[in-house]
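W.,

You were right to be curious about this one. When I first looked at the sequence I had no strong expectations either way, so I just let the prediction run and decided to look at it fresh. Below is the sequence, 410 residues in total, followed by the output.
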Amino acid sequence: MAGERKKGRKVNGEGSIYQRSSDGLWVASAYVYVSSGRIERRSRYARSFEEARAKLVQLQSNNEQGIPVPDRTMTVGEYMEHWLSVVKEEKRLTTFHGYESVVRLHIVPALGKKRLDRLTGADVRHFMGVVRAKCLCCTNGRNARRRAGADPCCRDGHPCCGRRPSPRQVQYIHAVLRNALSNAEREELVSRNVAKLVKVSTPRYKIGKGLRVSQAKALLKEAEGTRWYALYVTAATLGLRHGELLGLRWEDVDFERATLTVAQTVARAAGQLYVGPAKSDASESTIPLPKVTRRVLEAHRERQEMERADAGEAWQDRGLVFPSTIGTPMEPRNLNRHFAELRERAGMPDVRLHDLRHTVVSLLLDLGTPPHVVQAIARHAHVDITMAIYAHTNLDAMRQALDAIEWEDL
């Protein structure tokens, strides 16, 4: 019948799968759009028909969604643009903006014009040397934002301010480049990830500085009577992170079962307040609610009802436990400012809000709580993170250990 295709014949765009006789690999091919705008045949390779079929479906799905296949002749800058579009879809907004900042300020200016498939370990090694030596003040465009009359840095005869990237910043920039090239390797655009050939120094993290119980009580005593009191109690007794405290909802608190679920976080990204999922799968979990925390939160809920009544129509109910005075997500910087004033009044100018989280973990470890239980409470992805960052021996424990050695014959 006219218009009816013959049996077994494929239509345009359907793609094909076949096994290569030379090495036995399965090849999935389809005509798709590439980043240059052309339609070209692209292939994916697999060791089984099922794997090849999955790769073909993914290739065609990306094409239907308007995600082009990068050309092999594309530059590092062009690929970074493509990679960031993938990151934006798959990662948290805060992660995306962190990656985008590194790409825009560091990677593209130095490596953007190089061909992706010709990037070498020497290129990356030279790039990391440039990163270590550069002035962050100039890189981040701070000169343009300086007040009139202020001395510029590295310009018009003025010396450099000497603000270099920290070891942690250098490591992060290298990690972003390494992640991008790993993605390019998976997409078969490069034969190997040359960033892995270049080693950077691992930053030495300071031991978590937790407070003594007496210090934590003094800090909370100073906060008593303020609308932030319940937040600080929750931080000190459960070790929630900054953003997790601000993202906590009443539906996440079960007073009957005495549990609290960490499900979302509040952060500022690219100049906007962002409410998103918890930091990681490990962070999103349910933990027991101590009696003292439960009592304080119940009193806080009653106080919030009075705030709601006073705000009237201005109140925007988001169901948050620690919102702004009109019910909206609280600005993290406002919390930082209040805590800065609180610690000054308490006579602890060097204490950070995050130290309350350290306090919970340190105290639990000092009490002999098994590390895996502390890990579950702190919601770390791995127990070695708990031990590496927080587990430290105090002077009393060291003295007791040394005194246990018998030196009677001396």
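Here's what jumped out at me. Residues 291-311 form the longest helix (21 residues). And, maybe more interesting for your project: Residues 76-143+159-197 form a domain with the DNA polymerase; domain 1 fold (CATH 1.10.150.130).

Coffee later to discuss?

I.
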